[in-house]
Amino acid sequence: MRAAAAHYGIPAPQWLDLSTGINPQGYPVGPVPAGAWQRLPEDEDGLEAAARAYYGAESLLPVAGSQAAIQALPRLRGKRARVGVLEPSYNEHARAWRAAGHEVVELTEDELAGAAATLDVLVLVNPNNPTAVYLDPETLLDWHRMLAARGGWLVVDEAFMDTTPEQSLAGYTPREGLFVLRSLGKFFGLAGARVGFVLAPDGWLRRIAELLGPWSVPGPARWVAQQALEDRAWQTQTRRRLQEAGRRLETLLRDAGLPPAGGTPLFQWCRTERAQVIQDALARQGILVRRFDRPASLRFGLPGSEAEWQRLETGLQQA
Amino acid sequence: MRAAAAHYGIPAPQWLDLSTGINPQGYPVGPVPAGAWQRLPEDEDGLEAAARAYYGAESLLPVAGSQAAIQALPRLRGKRARVGVLEPSYNEHARAWRAAGHEVVELTEDELAGAAATLDVLVLVNPNNPTAVYLDPETLLDWHRMLAARGGWLVVDEAFMDTTPEQSLAGYTPREGLFVLRSLGKFFGLAGARVGFVLAPDGWLRRIAELLGPWSVPGPARWVAQQALEDRAWQTQTRRRLQEAGRRLETLLRDAGLPPAGGTPLFQWCRTERAQVIQDALARQGILVRRFDRPASLRFGLPGSEAEWQRLETGLQQA
Question: The complex's ipTM?
Answer without folding.
Answer: 0.93
